[in-house]
Design brief:
TIM Barrel; eight-stranded parallel β-sheet; 296 residues; 38% helix
Length: 296
Amino acid sequence: MKAYYHLPGLFEFCELYKVFLPLFREHREYFYDWCEIGSVYGAPKDCLWGGGRVGFGDAEPDEVLALMNEYGISARLTFSNSLLTGEHLSDKRCNALCRMFEHGAADNGIIVHSDLLLNYLRTNYPGFYYVSSTTKVLTDPGQLVSELNREEFRYVVPDFRLNKDPAVLNGLTAEQKRKVEFLCNECCWFDCYDRKNCYENVSRKSLGEGCADHVCVSPTADKGYRFSDAMDNPGFIGIGDIEKIYLPAGFRHFKIEGRSLGSAVVLEMLLYYMVKPAYQLKVREAVYLDSMLDLF
C-alpha cells in the first residue's frame, strides 16, 4: 500500500526540488518505503488562469519541465481560477504552458475549478489528466460524491473539513476512494464561513482586477501560516493517520499545501511527511548546505 504525495511549488520551489529529488532517488533508504511522489503542482507568477494562492513562481517553464521529466514525476499546472470567462481562454501564456506541458515523462495534469476552462482544455489539450480543485470548497457530502462520479476528473480534492468525517468517507466505494485526494496540512480556521470568498479574491487578483485584499475572518489570522498550528487543526492528517487509517481504508492520495510559503517551511513539511526521523538531519543538512539554494 503506497501513499502518493502531491507536493507544492512546481514553479515556486524548483531550486529546492533540484536538491531534494536527487536525495529521494539516490538515498531511498532515508524515506518511508510506503510513500511516493505523485506530482508537484503550481503555477508561475502573473498567471491569468491561476487561483488558490497568489502565485510568485519565477522558475523558467522549460527548466521546470526538464526537472520533472528527469525524475519521471507528474507536473500539475494549477489553473484553479473560478471567475474565468470566454475571453480569458485565449490567453497566450497559459496556452503556451499547456502546449509545453501536455506531454511529459510522466502523465502531466491540470488542477481546475472552472467547468468552462475544463471543457476548453479537454478539447484542445487531451493529453492531460484533470484534478477537481479544493477551491470548490466541497463540504457537502452529496456534492463530493457527485464530483467523484464525474469521469472528467482523475482526482478530487474535497474541503479539508471532510478529512475525518467517517460518515462520508466510509460510505464511498473503492473507486471513489481511489479518486479522493486529501488536503493534509491546511491551517485555515476549521469553522471558517468565508473560504469561497477568500479563493474568489485570489482569482480576481490573478485576472488583474483592482481589488482589496481579502480580510480573513479567522480569530488567529494575524499569526499567518504555521505548520505547528496546522498540526493542531481538527482536519490535519499526519503520517500516523496515513499509515494506520487512510491506507488500510483504501485512500492513496495526499496533497501538501505550501505554495505561498517559504522554501524552508516547505522543507520541514517534506521532512515530516516523507523522511524517517533518523535521517531528517541528513536531508536537512544536504539541503541547507547546498550553496546554490537560497532558503527563506
